Amino acid sequence: MPEGPLPLVFAFHGYSLSFEDQESTSGPSAIADHEGFVVAYPQALGDPTEWDLPGDTDVDFVRQLLAAFDATGCIDPARIFATGFSMGGGLTDVLGCRMADRFGAIAPVSGLYGKSWGGGCDPGRPVPVISFHGEADETVLFLGGEPATGRRSTPIEEWAAAWAERNGCDPAPVQQAAIGDVDPEFWSNCDAPVELYRVTDGGHTWPGGVNDPRDGITTTAISASELMWAFFAANPKVNP
């Protein structure tokens, strides 16, 4: 068993879903058991459930959760991370923008992003970002805009490029070797890394996870949960 304070990963579910859905879809609990970290699956309110984007209420909620974890003395404050699916990915992005003082890195999956959420994005320090998105996602469109149902969103490459700019990276990403149907793009010369995994025919799904077939194709070429944990482990929070 690991000794000393443990890393903590928050995993936020998507719109209308539950914390049970998030755990069963993404599967990081098994990785946590093996690698020695804690996963917290917060539950949104409402019927249907939804996170409060741009996040005023739920940012406070997360701060309260962190205070409770801090009080246990069991969590390493330099190794607190966030991931989330869809609307939960949007909240993950907001936390990177507004709580960079607490989160070491973020890893949204099929995330829903808006330019003005949270009053803009000024994290105060470079924040490592790894993200995953299907190019055939019909719920949160890769090219942005408003699908048949849902909220208007920022194009994924524009969103990632904005993080790259904040993190002092070169403007254009560098295409990495394809992993099956996944095309990774990494930005170079960054103060903090920015990585985007584009799934060629991927739907509104968690790569390597257990998804509803109605949400489109799920790639098995990668595991988002395994890749993000390796990224988190390599990027503890560094204060400016």
SSE layout and pairing:
Elements: E1 6-12, H1 19-26, H2 28-35, E2 38-40, H3 56-72, E3 75-85, H4 87-98, E4 105-109, E5 129-134, H5 156-166, E6 174-175, E7 182-186, E8 194-199, H6 224-234
Parallel strand pairs: 1-2, 1-3, 3-4, 4-5, 5-8
Antiparallel strand pairs: 6-7, 7-8
Task: Give the helix/strand class.
Answer: alpha/beta
User: How many strand units?
Assistant: 8
Helix % is 25-40%
Major sheet size, sense and barrel closure: 8 strands, mixed
Gyration radius, rounded: 16 Å
**Beginning-to-end CA distance, first to last residue:** 32 Å
- Which regions are unreliable across 5 or more consecutive residues at pLDDT < 50? none
| Mean pLDDT level | 92
- The geometry reads as globular
Strand order of the largest sheet: 2-1-3-4-5-8-7-6
Helix count from the secondary structure assignment: 6
What proportion strand? 15-25%
* H and E order: EHHEHEHEEHEEEH
Structural description of this entry:
Strands 2-1-3-4-5-8-7-6 form an eight-stranded mixed beta sheet, sandwiched between helices. With 240 residues, the protein is α/β, with parallel strands linked by helices. Helices cover 28% and strands 19% of the residues. The relative contact order is 0.15. A hairpin with a 6-residue loop joins β6 and β7. The longest helix has 17 residues.
